Amino acid sequence: MLGLVPLGALGLTIGIFIGCIGIGGVMLVPALSYLGGIAIPTAISAAMMGYLLTGAAGAAIYARRKSIRWPMALWLCAGAMPAAWAGAWASNTVAPLILEVFIGLLAASAGLHAIFGQRGGAGEVPKLSTAALISIGAVTGFASALTGTGGPLVLVPVLLWLQVPILTAIGLSQAIQFPIAALATAGNYFYGELDLALGILLAVTLAAGVGIGANLAHAIPRKLLHGVVAVVLIGVGGFMLTAILLRQF
In 3-state terms, what secondary structure has residue 66? Predict the structure, then answer.
């Protein structure tokens, strides 16, 4: 298992990605598993606990920059919270191999989306119905708790596809993190194992990284950041899927 310093550096780096472009959490569970030798379910539960502080820190910074549409955020959270509890139950029930394959595919597809997907509108925020926001929140909450990705990875691509401006999409993804992480952590506590020490370490370092990344997001071009993260995500997903295939033969 990795020591405290490497784990802290890992949390800080991924936190910067999360705060800056909204995706990055998908790299945390694979890194904890492959580099740290931590079981997938344990890594997922610790990651979700870590997102408690990233959600609070990211939302505070984006709110101060007026990049969060709170009416949209509230309906997204209404759908995400019960679904996150269900996702936590599923993550402790589904076979680790299935979770591993799903996370690998999620990482690779997120990277491909960052390269080829739409970047989001630059003008007005489109009007989305209450039912649509609740549904999007539910899908985000369940998938995030199931895989330990925290919310932004699922929500940002969906909102960009709906032509929501990039900073608004990232801001909403920050706001939805805390309720998803809270319900998922509670579910993991009741349904599985929760490594409190690892969760606290990740929470502190991820939050510090999110603070840095959120400020960077408002200061530097997103196109460059999208490109870097896309390559990393495709690499992570490809590595995981290749490793799984090699173990089967």
Answer: coil
